[in-house]
Fold:
Amino acid sequence: MKLLPGKVNPALLKTFLAYLAVSLILFILPARFLRPVRDVVLYPFGIVQRVLFAVVRTAASAGRLEHLWKADREAERLRGEVRALEAELAAERSRRATAEARLEQVARVPAEIAFRSLPAEVVAFDPAPLRHVALLNRGERAGVAPRAVVLRDGVVVGRIESVGPLVSRVALTGDPGCRVAVRNLRTRASGVLEGAGAGRCIVKYMDLTADVRPGDRFVTSELAASAPAGLQAAECVKVEDIPGEIFRRVEATPLFRLRELDEVVVLLPVADDSAGPSERRGGTAEAGRP
Amino acid sequence: MKIFPAFLLLGVVALAATVAAPALVEGAWRPDLFAILLMYAALRAPKRAALAWAWAVGLARDLSAGGSFGVYASLALLAAFVIVHVRTEIENRPLVSYVPWVAVVAALFGAADWTLTIANGYAPALAAAGRGIALSAMATMLASFPCMWLLNRFNAWLGIRRRYRFGSS
Structure:
C-alpha cells in the first residue's frame, strides 16, 4: 500500500506553508495584540454559550428531578423508621435501667447472710404526712412474709408491715410502725430503732452509761430475728439526757433518701415456713425478671 | 468553501464542544468534535480547501481553549496535510477505515491538551495523561459515526465538496 505519493503538489505545499506561517505569526504575537481580537470574536459566542449552557443544565437537571422525588420519599420513610427505632430504643433503655437497678440491689446484699433476696419495686407511697409507708409490687405469691427486712443499697429501709396476694406494705425506717433491734457500730451499745413519724427515728433503751454520740452508725443486731446482723440502719444526730429518765434520748436519721426509693430488696429467711416451697421458687424466679 | 455556513458550522461545533459535551459526558470520555470535523474536511473537501478548513478548525479550537493562538491551528494544518496525501487510499477502503485516523487526530489534539496543561504548571496531570488521551480517542472514534453521518446529510448546504463516496471502490 502506497500511503504517501512521491511528489508533493507545489501549490498545495505553498498553501500549507502559508497557513503554517500565519499560525506561527499568531503564536509569536504578544497577547496584547490578540486579546482584543479574541474578545470581539468571543463576545457573541459568549452570549450564545451562556444561553445554551442554561438550556443544557436545565435539561440535565430535569432527569434528576425524578431521583430527587424518589430520594425525598425514601428519606421520609427512613425518618419514620428512625423515629420508631428511637422510641423502641428509649423503651429498651428504660427496661434495661430497671433490670440493672434490680441486679445492683441484689448484688449489694452481703453474700454470707442466710437470707434470699427478692427484688421489688416501690409502686406507691402513703400520702399521710406522719406515716412513712410504701407499697411494693411483690406479695404473698412471690414469697413476701410479714416483718421481713427491706434493703436499699445495702441499707435497711424498713420492714414489711402487711402482705397481700400481689402487693405488700412496708413501714419505712422513720415510720412509727417500724422497729428494728440495732447496735452502735462503734461501741456495740444496743437499742431499738423506732420511727417517730415524719421520717425521724429514735433509738430506745440506750442506758445512761451507753457511749453514743452524734455521727455514730447503728447497724442491725443479732437480736433482730428476721434480719441479718450488721446491716446499716440509721445515723445518730442528737443525744440527750433527760432528768428523771433511765434511758438516754437518742435521735437518729435514716440512711436513705425517700425520693430515690424505687428498687428495693426484700430479705426472706430461707427456713421461713410461712411461705410454701412452690411460692418461694416462684419468688426466686420472679427475682430475675426485669 | 462557503464562508457563512463554514462559520456557522464552526460556531456550532465550538458550542457543542464547550457547553453541551461537558454537561452531558463525563471527564475523559468526552469526544473531540473538532477532530471529527477536521477529519471530515480533510477527507471530503478539495485539497487546498481542506487545508483552509483544517486551519479554521484549529483556530476555532485555539479560541475555545483560551490558550495561545496558532497551536492547534498548526497541529490541525499538519494533520490535514498528511491526510490529504493518503485519503485516496482511505476512500478506496471500507467506511470504517477512516476511523483509526479520527483516533490519531483526536490523540494528537489530546496530547497537545495535556502538554499545554502540564506546561502551564499542573504537573499532576501527567499521571492521568495517557489514560485521558486513550479514552478521548476512543470516545471520538465512537462519536465520529453519527457526526460523519450528520455532516454528510448537510454537505450540500455546508459546501464541503463531495468528491468521493465513502465505502465506494
In short: Chain B has a mean pLDDT of 78.
